[in-house]
Write a structure and sequence with these properties.
alpha+beta
Length: 517
Amino acid sequence: MIIDGAFIHALVNELNSKLNKARLEKISHVTSESFLFQFYFKGEKLKLIIDLNANFFSAYITDKKVPNKDHSQFLLTLKKQLEGGILDSITQHQTDRVMLFNFTVYDFIDGPVSKVLVFEAMGKHSNLMLIQDGKIVDTFKKMFFETGRQLIPGATFEFFPTNKKPFDHIDYHMIETPKNISASYMGISMKLATYLFENHKQISELPLNPTKDITKNTGYFFDIFPNDHQKKSYQTLSELCDDQEIINTQFKQSYDLFIQKQLDKYNRKLGQLELSLDQTRKQLDDKTFGDLIYQSGLNLNDKQSEIIVYDTKVMLDPTLTLNENAQKYYKSYQKAKRGLIHINEQINETKALRDLFEEFKTYLSFASQDDIADLENDLIPYGYKAKKKQVQKKKSSPNILKIVDQDAIYIIGKNSLQNQYVTHELARQEDYFFHVKDAPGSHLIVKAEGLNEKIIRKASMLAAYFSSLRYSSSIPVDYTQIKNVKKIPKIPGYKVILKNQKTMFIDIDEDLINTYL
């Protein structure tokens, strides 16, 4: 979904027409990162979802049955502060990706009180904040920025700083490239900037026609997609968002449940193994106790319940002789030594499996429906029971992502099967390998005569995007030639070690990524 300021502008108009002057009856969680606001207006119940998930962030009306999840402290604050209030209006901050839900809540002492729920639809920085009298009452994500902006309770609320102008009127006399539009005007994605540059249109001239590009599984407030793509039109933006959310989650649900169940199992097992390791390490002291018995100078045929040697108390079994107690301690020590080897082997094996399923979780987060069959094949050996399907002809190769430029070809694996294929079979010794540093992610191969800064930055950004660090900043990405990449033996999945690698630190530009993909 392309969520930019122009999309938000159209969405605000739509939601205002439905929710203006409605009473907020109830707030609940849908997921840990999304909220359900239930309104009542003129005999009609309306459900608004605000989703902060970095993969799908939006606000939309739904008529579907929505589950209620556990409470959070932020949810309790919203319920206390807003339930029973009237939604006076929904506005947009200039032309940015910021929606303001303006409420009037009646207080028994103070009477009508104005409160604002601010939704910042900012990708990985998406946030929800409750503001009163210019101060932050509470915020879903507590955040600090290098600009000095603070999103914490009690702080003065400030909008995200920008030098861009609202897109009320675009002056094409000063525009030389689509990037000039995106860089100069607030709320314009690169996709929209390219369209505007090619057609010299103003935002106000664009028709409202909510459209989903089925081919690319994305959507926008009008048809901006290639003519040869399969598309679907909607009556409202809410219908588009609601449908997109279902597509993004339903086909992944069974995989997500299985992966999380396995992660929970391995984390529990690791906890138990670490406890056993501590207990077994303590048994190594038994050798010292055995030695002390022999060093005591006492009659080894005596039977005692305890002795003190060199200020150390040694507990004994009174039914055994001192000699038998010493031998018992030595046997316990030998058993502990063998146990440590076994427990450490189990810990290493369990950590490897846990790390593998962390990789699977990462791969699932950016898997498309075309990728899911490859991921399923990765999961089946670990107990995943695939749903019965019609017999299909086996694919000759995994479904990999390939991006072709004039000076380079970028090949991206998005799960273990694809990673093995692109690195082991497609790549040649002179090709280049990119991978996020010390974290799960895609294997990215660059086929080019040589590397320049443009290729390195693009490959690094793609490798960072298809990784578990996608929503971080200054992401480290290692790169080297394929001849310096070796598979780690006897480890689940397809992990490699690198030598002679260099590291690029990169921030992800989502607009730029959209142009790549």
